């Protein structure tokens, strides 16, 4: 292993699941499992900066004893220099996944994903420059948006809508393409601009929305109606 290896933590109450993930991850020269935890409380303790474990990416299960993945994600991502969290889920956990993203998770990974998809997800979220598994993420987000409460008539404009209103026309275009799972390179091709220009737009979008990364910005796009399911 080198100092540039991506350090991964596995948090799941099923030991066989962790063993399978570890086998796949440790087979890669640029990835290394440095920590395992069987529940959220154990993960929060082990990932405390004072514990001495440097972790880049956490694969976090949702349903676990002692402390579930939602609470653990919120506690871990609230810390300075927190690792990025990828939530392990299935489609029947819709409201839990959305809550995890709101709590600070950077993306989704379906538990029945192919090993190549898991490895790509870890590398992608570590880079922070693309949405994890665009097709799966988009389908899941479109499913999640169905469980969002409808707006009440006459309700005041919430901070998310106010932030979206501050975006320029080009920034809205970029955010819509992000929500459709397009990478920076693809967005640049769609809009006939340089990839560096796209990165600048993405940075400004994240800053205006107060989003930690692209996935959270995409959630805002769906929640505020900028992007509609199936659009």
TrEMBL record:
- Coiled-coil parts of chain: none
Domain Response regulatory, first and last residues per copy: 7-126
- Record-linked Gene3D superfamilies: 3.40.50.2300
Per the database record, which ranges form the HTH luxR-type domain? 160-225
Q: Which UniProt keywords apply?
A: DNA-binding, Phosphoprotein, Transcription, Transcription regulation
Task: Name any one Pfam family assigned in the record.
Answer: GerE
* Modification 4-aspartylphosphate, positions: 61
Extract the InterPro entries matched here.
Answer: CheY-like_superfamily, NreC/VraR/RcsB-like_REC, Sig_transdc_resp-reg_C-effctor, Sig_transdc_resp-reg_receiver, Tscrpt_reg_LuxR_C, WalR-like
Identify the PANTHER family for this entry.
Answer: TRANSCRIPTIONAL REGULATORY PROTEIN NARL-RELATED, TWO-COMPONENT RESPONSE REGULATOR
Q: What's the protein called, per UniProt?
A: Response regulator transcription factor
Q: Which organism is it from?
A: Cellulomonas alba
